[in-house]
Design a protein that fits this description.
CATH superfamily of the largest domain: D-amino Acid Aminotransferase, subunit A, domain 2
Helix content: 25-40%
CATH architecture of the largest domain: Alpha-Beta Barrel
Structural class: alpha+beta
Number of domains: 2
Bound molecules: 4'-deoxy-4'-aminopyridoxal-5'-phosphate
Number of helices: 7
Shape: globular
Largest sheet: 9 strands, mixed
Radius of gyration: 19 Å
């Protein structure tokens, strides 16, 4: 696979950083995660909400004093160009990162050290199950005042990795973080939605979670296209146990139904009707079947 590093398209093996780099030693950097979907004609590839991903990465890099080395439009075009150069004709994942490649001892963020790298890979399903069993993690989400989740920080994913490891060791598929205050935050790489009495509920991004692009898209689809009621508010742990439905969402996870939380089976234990409707509509949108949402899709070919 070709990747991109500071203005050049090179073989992934040649896109290397020093073992002394601050990116590697201290996790100094932020990243994005973008999906490209193969259209129904088997030819066209649609990048989902590329503009929103680029904007979020730009904001993250501002917080971290690692400004995007190229403009937003150029970054969007570079993502498309990378997919073209790799001749991608299947579902794919693209990972742009702004990192500090500098090989200096002390952890320090400096504007002049910002490096842009992008890699991509084929991706069908990130979570390979139709519905999952989750637990509430004993690890708390890193607060915005410590390692801001809204920056999608490379170093911050140690928090996610610890929670996923604990969940897997205990026989669960995924972990749900609480904030330090004990409110529901997010999964290791997904946002949380529950359905209670017909209302879709999701915690705001002030609960130490990422400003999610799938989450925001689903809120729009639910309220504008499907006429569902939505409420953004903090969620308590035990509300998860008595939810009628719950699902996780994200660029990787898409819409992933949750079967149980801490061994409490939700609803009828299957995929709930709201989750199914919204999940199906999301798939139609990302594959270009919904005309009025075509402006969310960036065609790679033609
Ligand atoms: N939370 C975390 C911690 C994530 O890493 C991700 C994946 N990007 C998400 C939520 C989902 O966000 P998005 O829909 O923007 O991919």
């Amino acid at each position: 696979m070709l990747s991109y590093i500071d203005g050049n398209f090179v073989d992934e093996e040649q896109a290397t950083v020093s073992i002394r780099s601050r990116a590697l030693n201290y996790g100094l950097g932020c990243f994005g995660g973008i999906r490209a979907y193969l259209a129904d004609d088997g030819e066209q590839l649609f990048v989902f909400r590329l503009d929103a991903h680029v904007r979020r990465l730009e904001r993250a890099s501002k917080i971290l004093f690692l400004p995007l080395p190229i403009g937003r439009d150029e970054l969007a075009n570079t993502v498309l160009e990378l997919l073209r150069r790799n001749e991608i004709h299947h579902d794919a994942y693209v990972r742009p990162m702004v990192i500090s490649k500098t090989a200096k001892l002390a952890p320090l963020l400096r504007e002049e050290d910002a490096s842009l790298v992008i890699w991509c890979m084929p991706l069908q399903r990130y979570i390979d199950k139709d519905s999952i069993e989750v637990c509430v993690s004993s690890w708390r989400r890193t607060p915005d005042n410590s390692i801001p989740a809204r920056t999608k920080p490379t170093g911050g994913y140690l928090n996610s990795a610890l929670a996923r490891r604990e969940a897997h060791d205990n026989g669960f598929d995924e972990a749900i973080f609480l904030t330090t205050e004990g409110k529901v935050s997010e999964g290791s790489a997904e946002h949380v939605f529950i359905v209670r009495d017909g209302v879709l509920i999701s915690p705001p991004s002030t609960e130490d979670n990422l400003d999610g692009i799938t989450r925001r898209s689903l809120i729009t689809l639910a309220t504008e296209d499907l006429g569902l009621s939505f409420c953004e508010r903090p969620i308590g742990r035990t509300e998860l146990y008595v939810a009628d439905e719950m699902f996780l969402c994200g660029t990787g996870a898409q819409v992933t139904p949750v079967r149980s939380v801490d061994r409490r089976v939700l609803g009828e234990g299957g995929i709930g009707p709201v989750t199914k409707r919204l999940g199906d509509h999301f798939q139609d949108v990302v594959h270009g079947r919904v005309e009025h949402r075509r402006d969310w899709l960036w065609p790679v070919w033609g």
